[in-house]
Each structure stands twice: as C-alpha cells, then as structure tokens.
Amino acid sequence: MPNPTERAIFLQAVEEENLDDRQAYLDSACGDDRELRASIEALLAAHDEPAALLDHPIGADDSHPTLLISVPGESIDQISSQIGPYKLKEQIGEGGFGLVFVAEQEQPVRRKVALKIVKPGLGSKAIIARFEAERQAVAMMNHPNIAQVFDAGVTEDGRPYFVMELVRGLPITEFCDKKRLNITQRLELMIDVCSAVHHAHQKGIIHRDLKPSNVLVTLHDGRPVVKVIDFGVAKALGGKLTDKSIYTSFLSMIGTPLYMSPEQAEMSSLDVDTRSDIFSLGVVLYELLAGETPFDRKRLDSAGLDELRRIIREEEPPRPSTRLSTCNEAATTIADRRHIDPRGLASAIAGDLDWIVMKSLEKDRSRRYDSAAALADDLKRYLENQPIQARPPSTLYRVRKYARRHRVAFLTATLVSISLILGTAGSLWQMSKAIGERNAKDTALREATQAKTDAIAAKQKVERFAADLVRANELVVSGQSHADAGRWQDAMRDYEAAVEIQPSYYLPRVQRAQLFTRLGLWPEAAQDYAKAINMGASTSQPQWWGVPALFLYTGYDEPCERILERRREEILRNPSTPGWMLLRDIAVSNRPISSGELEPFIELTRQWLREREFDHRPKPPPMDLDFGPPADRMRGGPEHGPRRDHLGQPVLSDSTPLAVRHYIAAMVLLRAGEFDQALDLLAKAEQDRRWPGQYLVHAPAALAHYWNGDTALASEALEHSDAGIREWLSASEEGSLQSTQAPWFDLVEGLLIHREAWQVIRGTTSPLAAQLDKRRAAAKKLLNGVSSQ
Fold first, then answer.
1. How many whole angstroms separate alpha carbon 777 and alpha carbon 773?
2. Is 209 marked active-site?
3. Is pLDDT larger for residue 127 or for residue 610?
4. What CA–CA distances, in Å, run from 338 to 9, 43, 62, 182, 544?
5. Superfamily of chain region 66-166
6. Of the residues 177, 192, 209, 722, which is catalytic?
7. What global pTM score does this model have?
8. Contacts of 604 (CB under 8 A, 6+ apart)
C-alpha cells in the first residue's frame, strides 16, 4: 500500500466491527474513486479470508509496522472450546481484531464470563499490541461502572486473551428509550458514565471511542447499572501500556465519526488528551436528550473523508432544544420515550442543559469541561437546582469566532478603527496627562485624610471595647452576688446586660448558664454553654463539670463530643492523678468512645479504686457537693459547705467520696459491658447512707439487669429510679428554688440515665414530663418573664 490514504482507510476499515458500518465507512472514505475502493476491498478480503502466509510490509522502512496475513486454512472453528479453566459457549461479539465469547469458568469458582481473544490468523504486530493494550487498560481500572477484568493469558498457539465481567445489557440510548426513562433518570445514568470515565482518566487511560454501544446498561436487583466497555482503542497517558509498541497509522482517524472530537478528526500531530472523551460524552448526552446525534448520521455517511473531517472540525451543531423544536414528526415519539408532553419537550431541555451539552461539544478543547468529574458535577448541580458552571460564551469569544468566519471584512474594519483610535488618542493624551496629575494630588490628599480618620476611629473602637469589657465584668460580678442571695431577677438583668455589651465574650454566658442550671432551666443553660464553647471558653474549670450530661439531655451532640474529647485527653495526659469528675463526664454518655479506646479508662478506674480503698491516711472532710438529704438541701445544706473558686463555683478535691467513686466506676464498667461488676459497685454506692445521690444508682442498675437478661429486676430498679427522681422534683417547687444549693448535675445525670433506661426497657419515653414542666414553670415564674438573648 504505497498510498498513505489507502493505508489509513484500510486500517480504519479493519477496526469496524459491523459489516454495514464498514461498508458505510468505505462509501464515505473512497467516494467515487473506484480504483481505491477496489484496492481496499481486495486488502480486506485478504485480511478476512487469508489464503497464504504472507509478510506484507506497509511501509518501505522499519518505522512502520508489518502486517502479517494469517496462516492458511485457519478459521474461527479452529479455536479450542476450552481455554485454560474457561469453556467457550457462544460467540457474542466481533471486533476488528478480536472475538468475544460467553465462557463458563469451571475453577476455582463456577461462573459465566466474557472471554476476548485475538482472531485466528491475525498476526499483525499492531493488532497484537493494540489487543494487549486493551487488556492492560481494562485491568488497570477498578470501578463499579467499568467491566471488571478477572484473568488474562495466552493460548497454546500464542494468541493473547483476557477474561472479564459478562455484561448482558443494552446500549444506554436503547435502554433509556425502551424503559421510557425521563430526563432526570437519564442524567443520573450519565453521571455514572462520567464517574467511570473519570476513573479511567485518573488511571492514565483515554477511551477514544465512547459511544452508546460501548456504554451498556444492565439491571442489578431492578436498578439500572452502567458498564463502560471496549477499551480497544484506548490510549495511555504518559507511557505505553505494554512492552509491545502500538503504532497509530499515519493520517488515520481513531474512533467513530459521529462521536469523534475535532482533535481526533484533525489527524495531525496535535496530541489527543482526556478532553477528547469529554466531547464524546457530550455527544452521548446530546443523543440521550434530543434523540439524535449533533450531526446527521446520513449526512456523515454520505460525505467523503475530507468533508467528514471538515464537518467535525468546523461546523457548530444546533443546541439540543433547537434540534427538538425542528424535528416535527419525530417529536411525539421522542417525547413519549422521555415520559414528557411533546409540547414541553424543547423547553424542558432549553437553558442549563443546553449550556452543559454545548460546553462539552466546544470545538476548542480548552473551553470544554476540564474533566469528566466536572461534567458530572454540573449535571448534579442541575438536578439539585443549583447554578451550573457552564455559562454562555462571552462577547469577546463570540467576536473572535465571527472574526475567524469573516476575516477580510473584519480586518478592514479593524484597521479603520485603529486609525481612528490612534488619531483621537494623540489629541487626548496631553489632556489626560494633566487631568491625571491633578487627580493624583486629589487622591493623595483624600487618602491622607481617610488614614487619619481611620486611625481616630480605631483608637476610639479600642477604648470603647476596653470600657465595655470592664463594664461587662462588673455586671458579671454583680449578677453572681444577686444569684448567691437568691435575687434571680436582678442576677438575670445583670447577665443580660453583660451579654448585650460584649456579645462575643464567653464569661457572661457561662455565668448565666450557671444561673439557669440552678433553676432547672436546662435548654437555656445548654444554649449558653454551647455558645461559650464556640467563643473559645476553656472547659477545664469545675463549673463545666456535668455539662456533657446537660448537652446529651438537651440534644447538643457536637459540643458534647468536643468536651468529652478534652476530658479523655486530660485524663490520659496525667493518669496517675485521679480525675473522677472528668471520668464521670465520659461515663455518662452511652457512646463515649469505641470499645478498644475504652480499655485504658477501665484500667485507670480499677487502679484509682484500689488506691482509695488501701489508702488509710487521714482524709479531710469530704466535699459536700452531693451530701445532705433532700430536705437539708432545700434549707441550705449541711454545716460544711463545698470549697469554691474565685467565681464562687464548687471545686472537688482528690478526696471524692468513696460512694461517688463507686458510682462512677460502675458507670464506666456498665459502658464496657461488664454488668455484674457494675452491679456490685452500684450496690456498694447505695449502702453509703451519707450520700444523698443514692437514687442515681437505680437507673444504671436497671440497664445492667436488663442487659444481663433479668427483666424482672430491671423493671423493679427502674421503678425505684422513677420514685427517687420524683422525690427530688417534688422538693423543687417555687418556694424552695431560691435556697437550693445542691449540685445541679446530679439531677440532670439522673434524668438522662433514667430516660435511657426507660427507652431501653419499656420502649417508651420517660413519664416525668409533667413534673419537669411544673418545675420549669416555677423557675420561669421566679425570673418573672426575663428571657435569654
């Protein structure tokens, strides 16, 4: 084949799998040249039905591959029915250089697969290399929407083959029309196609022949699943796929013209990159929406090779909505296949979908989507009614396109315009220079004045901020004094004023939260604590003890986890120092940390308990945060009150009462699933009659019994918990709220665990809502309608 055109047409015709497509391609490529057509058909006949073993060089030198014609007498029938562990069943496809069979794998698993093998008699180095390139390309990828490769090998007679997932599906356009999918469903399938192509691009593979027949859709459990197949003309980016060279013939086009990008049709030295596949995706999307390809199929089939290339490279296709508005007779069929009224067919696609498609079909590849993922993201934005990235071309871009079409007229007009501009510019230059100098002086003066004004304003702002900070602190101290004296309205007024003066200052919110907790207004307290955390408040002070339980009780999960993470870090940073109240915050949550991370806290709990039980040194009087019967609490507590910090908040020392330690340790073991040990410790805690928090042990005991399988004891413990909490709530009426000094987190923690136990054991919500509402109403009455900001 001395003629380069003859060589290119022959190699392209060999690639056509369907005989009708091959004949249509020859009609367009050869035109009226009968001698060229006869020569090509003779070469194809010798290729398809070889009669002798020939080595026929395509070129005169070693730079072109050698086409080795087949061995005499060899046919498809000579392919063994058994290839390795695969038994061939039936032929389901044929390409330019390969055959595809349904095969049954017998070992190590029994399943049906697709086996692709080089045709008998094809000895071309280029064909073998391209087949192995396809095998390597598909094997590199692992994506649910790309046919998976299972195996590869070489037959006894030296023909490579590979085994892949058997896809029994329809081309995407045929599937969508047969199932009458609407536009949204078609776009969702197209998003999956883009995902698969993007995966291939990330692996360095360009498909170069994306079309509906290479995008199959099958049903898995009634759900349509896309599978991209046939990487036979795939091109690797940045390197060869195999150690055998692949030579793309001189002046040959790779791909299918209807779906081919302009750079593929260029047949020049311009390298083809991933954006070529974006163009092909745009054509498939166009066909899914409009029912036809951008260029008329019959027109391309009848055009000669040069005219075909010109159409692809230069002509702008109509928008999908424009094509639909002019299809007339076919509109009813197209609309019915898309499950839409024919009258609204074009308008359903006009607008965003038009721009998305046309951006994909840009002749200039730099103006297309830069990746298949970007195209998929724009389709998702359209489905979610969000602004899309595709935009109409700018005015400058349209002018440049017009200039290319009308170069002579545009050049003349440009020269005239330039002359006018230059003539006017000379006379205006001196005037503009003088005006510029004057404006520069005015600007400098304005900038100096503005700088001085800004400096004065900044100084005033700093002074005002400092004064506000001092005033806010004064109001916080005043509010604390009023709260300690039971003057709730005055305390709330001061805290509200402090928050208003310094809304970004966390201390007034923390103090106001403390007031809310004392009155039992849990949601208001949790809101202030959460805002304080977002403002940067430290959570290591005693006034933050019990806040995780408050957050869990009121539904503030995110700030709760932030505090718990700090608690875990603080304990593990200094494990030798018992931190019982920190551990109590961790144990109160039913999902503090994973079981593996919980192990260190279990060991620390046991170690701390041993240290307390064997330590007989004299102890200071126990902290009275939890001591005194309910009546004593309402009267102001026992004689020895708790030690407090500079803000008047209670502080626990290392001498946490043993009953409280037993309770906390039991909660840790309960969360770890060691229910029997937890019950033993809860029983020890309950035996200490000095501890007024005995009612706290019943709800966790109910959970332990229930998870141990003893529902009777679980119900009994739950009833004890209900009775104990009701006693505390009954004592918290309007008249006694003003003298309450008990730690608020005992009650919150009791309510939280009680609610959890009630939901687990009874499957319903806690029945304490009425009493809690009554207590909340009493607290609101004390505040006399003052509310938080």
1. 6
2. yes
3. 610
4. 38, 45, 54, 4, 61
5. Phosphorylase Kinase; domain 1 (3.30.200.20)
6. 209
7. 0.44
8. 571, 575, 583
